[in-house]
Every structure is written in C-alpha cells, then in structure tokens.
C-alpha cells in the first residue's frame, strides 16, 4: 500500500565539504521526492550524541558523534510516496563498498563513517528525527 510520508535526511560533513549538496538533492528530485525543508547547520558533539543515542552501546558511537559534529551538515525533510524506504534505496547500503551502483553512497561515500548521507529507518524514527532538527 502506498502512502505519502516524510523522512529526515542528512547530508554529512564529507559530502557538504565536497560540494555535493545539489547533486544529492537532484537524486531525490529525480525520484519525485520533494525537499520540503532544508538547512545547513553545524551541531555540537553533545547534540550529535543525543541524535544518535540509539547507537550509544555500539563500539563506533563516539567516533560517529565526533564525525557528525566535525563540520557543516545539511538537514532536510523529504516527502513522497513511501519515502522512508525509497530514500533508503536511493542512499544504498550503510557501507559504500556494499552499496548498489547508482546509489548515493556508492557514488559519493568514502567509508562506512564518511558515507555521505543519513536517512530515517522507520515511521517512528522519522517523526523523532524530524522533530529533533525542525521543531519550532
Ligand atoms: P547512519 O545511517 O548515519 O547511521 C549510523 C551511522 O554509524 C552509519 O550511518 C555509519 O556511518 C556509522 N557506522 C560506523 N560504523 C558502523 C558499523 N559498524 N555499522 C553500522 N554503522 C556504522
């Protein structure tokens, strides 16, 4: 069953630094996904730790939070049919070396840490993650 959803997307420091924002946003637009909101920000390590707290028991947690706060990021609300799953398809596998051809992480990802984009993984997390960056 199809339904219009929203999801949170983050263009991570490695991709912002390499001026890939427009190229990545074009990948969404090509799939009829709307970029409803978009802002370029830099967050503190504390904010990154809060955002990624579902991963707090993972061995890579500290590295992940340092990395997300290491430079400017672009946070976006995407909207479209089944956009949570669609965005995950467009991003590709977490580790760029396992990502399918044509996906954002295959095209632009450098490593599992510097994998260029983040996207919410469920309706519940999408709501939480959108609120985290866009609650006004
Ligand atoms: P992201 O989709 O932003 O969600 C958590 C991030 O942790 C993930 O992308 C990766 O960039 C990073 N990460 C680092 N090491 C791992 C790992 N072993 N497994 C999963 N994610 C990892």
Topology readout:
Layout: E1 4-11, H1 13-17, H2 21-30, E2 34-41, H3 45-51, H4 61-68, E3 73-81, H5 83-91, H6 104-108, E4 117-119, H7 123-134
Antiparallel strand pairs: 1-3, 1-4, 2-3
Helix pairs in contact: 3-4
Task: Summarize the structure in words.
With about 140 residues, this protein is α+β, with helices and mostly antiparallel strands. It has a single domain, classed as Alpha-Beta Plaits. The chain is built from 7 helices and 4 strands, in the order βααβααβααβα. The protein has a 4-stranded antiparallel β-sheet with strand order 2-3-1-4. Helix 3 packs across helix 4. The longest helix is centred in the C-terminal third of the chain and has 12 residues. The protein is globular. The N and C termini lie far apart (about 30 Å). The model has no long low-confidence stretch (mean pLDDT about 95). Adenosine-3',5'-cyclic-monophosphate (CMP) binds next to loops. The site of adenosine-3',5'-cyclic-monophosphate (CMP) has 8 residues, from loops.
Kindly state the number of beta strands.
4
Task: Tell me the distance between the termini.
Answer: 31 Å
Neighbour order of strands in the largest sheet: 2-3-1-4
Which CATH architecture?
2-Layer Sandwich
The largest sheet is: 4 strands, antiparallel
The helix tally amounts to 7
Shape: globular
Query: For the residues shown, what is the average pLDDT?
Result: 97
| Strand/helix succession | EHHEHHEHHEH
């Amino acid at each position: 069953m199809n339904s219009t959803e929203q999801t949170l997307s983050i263009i991570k420091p490695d991709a912002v630094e390499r001026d890939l924002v427009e190229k990545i946003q074009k990948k969404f637009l090509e799939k009829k996904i709307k970029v409803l909101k978009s802002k370029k920000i830099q967050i503190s390590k504390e904010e990154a730790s809060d955002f990624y707290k579902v991963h707090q028991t993972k061995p890579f947690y500290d590295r992940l939070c340092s990395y997300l706060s290491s430079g400017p990021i672009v946070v976006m609300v995407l909207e479209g049919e089944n956009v949570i799953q669609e965005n995950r398809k467009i991003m590709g596998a977490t580790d760029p070396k396992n990502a399918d051809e044509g996906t954002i992480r295959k095209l632009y990802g450098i490593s599992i840490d510097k994998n260029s984009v983040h996207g919410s993984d469920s309706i519940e997390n999408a709501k939480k993650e959108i609120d985290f960056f866009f609650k006004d």
